[in-house]
Amino acid sequence: MKRKVWIQVSGTTALVVAAAGVVVHMLAGTSSEVQASNGSDNRAGSGEPVRVEVTQAQHRALTETLQLPASLEPGEVADLYAKVSGYVRSLRVDIGSRVQKGDVLLEINVPEMHDELRQAEAVLAANRAKVQALRAKVAQAASMIVTAKAEVQRSEAQLALVRITVDRKKQLFSAMAIPEQDLDEATSRVAVVEAEAKNAKAKVAAADAERDAVEADVQVAQAQVAVEEANVGRLRTLMEYATIRAPFEGVITARLVDPGAFVRSAAEGATTSLLTIARVDYVRLVLNVPESDAPYVNIGTELEAQCKVLGEHPLRVTVTRTAMSLRESTRTMRAEADIQNPDGRLVPGLYARTSVLLKTNAQALMIPSKAVRVRGSDVTVLVADGSVARARPITLGYDDGLWAEVKSGLTGDERIIVNASGVVAPGAPVSAVPIGS
User: Is the pLDDT score of 89 beyond 90?
Assistant: First the structure.
């Protein structure tokens, strides 16, 4: 992994490649100069001005990139397994075969499942017929209820008539117009008709009970039909699993079975796939970003990818997605960039060299690195304030040993001492001349 920083200098572009230890080495060297200057402070304070070269901080374009290895992976990839056990009846593809979504790839022969399906369909048909028969019985019970209720009405009307007849005969018997036998016959007729009315009402109740019982039988039969329908549906679904189809458009990249071979269902513990299909009309450029640079790589971050197959023409893409977390084992974050590949030129598995644009500052305040003074944790520069050297504390950004980015502490108008910083102490008299004079 290398970090590159592009700095715009006087209208031209200079490229500096800095490894991780360059800055530390530079700072250590500067610290040595400061330590050396500690023994020269008495000489610098003798009152004679020290001739020093000065310059001003400059606003320049600063672009920081990260060089990382990467690889190309399929846009989508799927290992296809058997969902049912059986013998491979036909295999219609091989490695390199291009397929469309829904194409038949492989068929498994499972004759015992065909028999089980036919049996389940027969049981389902019988249960459906039973439901129809029970519904006919419900209709018959309803008809019997209507008939029984009509008989109740007839019996009640006849009972009302015989009661009226009894009342009239009682009057005639009181008037000695009829014999007592006629009255007794009318009275007994009332009892008979009352019994018939009760019997008719009992028939209504019995018909109601019969209808309720048959309706309960219908519900049970319908539940059995639902169970058998689910069983038939399950078997039909399993039969569909005997035909393996392409889940998406792509290329067959692996074939691990031959026609006639017995394959086990993955649901029964099989761990070997039958086929592997990969989508290659677009590929994923995958790179692992180090922990220190992960905060700067987000969706939309620009990068360039160089593959041998592309010659000297790099791909310019942007990050499509990131894992948003680091792997504990490597302390790196996975980032991906989708690349359209309609002609299939980019083959999954290719190695790529990527240049990730981490940070860009069009107006970075830059000073020569040799002007930086380090004393312990204090970072300063000396400026010529009139004819006196003054120390200014600064905060550094990027520093490659030649140029240093100043985050804070300078306005850009100061005259920065770029030489003799090791022998000039703050407060010492100086004679400032422009750099190169």
Answer: yes
Supply the CATH classification number for the domain 112-241: 1.10.287.620
Find out whether 244 and 214 touch, Cβ atoms under 8 Å: no
Q: What is the pLDDT of residue 198?
A: 85
Q: How far apart are CA 393 and CA 383, in angstroms?
A: 11
Q: pLDDT band for position 275 (50/70/90)?
A: very high
Asked if 315 and 297 touch (Cβ cutoff 8 Å), the reply is: no
Write out the residue limits of the CATH 2.40.30.170 domain(s) in the chain: 71-107+257-360
Q: Per the structure block, which two tokens stand in for 71?
A: 């690889």
CA atoms within 13 A on the CB side of 165: 17
Residue 225: φ, ψ to 5°:
-60, -45
Three-state SS at 68 = strand
In CATH terms, the fold of domain 20-60+362-434 is 2.40.420
* Token pair of 171 as six digits: 């009057």
More confident residue, 310 or 431: 431
Q: Residue 387: which of 355, 427, 347, 343 has the closest Cα?
A: 427
SS3 at position 281: strand
Res 95: pLDDT: 96
Does the 71-107+257-360 domain belong in CATH 3.30.420.240?
no
Which is it for the CA torsion 92, 96, 102, 106, positive or negative? positive
Helical ranges in 101-179 per DSSP H: 111-174
Neighbour-count burial of 338, counting CB atoms closer than 10 A to its CB (0-12 exposed, 13-18 middle, 19+ buried): middle
Q: Where in the chain do CATH 2.40.420.20 domains reside?
A: 20-60+362-434
User: Which residues pair with residue 289 across a beta bridge?
Assistant: 333
Cα 25 to Cα 355: distance, rounded to the nearest angstrom: 25
Contact 288, 330 (CB under 8 A): yes
H or E element at residue 50: strand 50-55
The C-alpha atoms of residue 273 and residue 260 are separated, in whole angstroms, by 16
Q: What is the DSSP letter of 268?
A: G
Q: Nearest CA to 284 among 341, 330, 342, 345?
A: 341
What are the structure tokens assigned to 86, written together? 């059986």
Q: What is the pLDDT of residues 4-54, one digit of tens each?
A: 555 444 333 343 433 333 333 333 344 434 333 333 443 444 568 888 999
Report the pLDDT averaged over residues 202-217. 85
| Whether pLDDT at 331 is above 90 | yes
Running DSSP on this structure, what letter comes out for residue 325? S
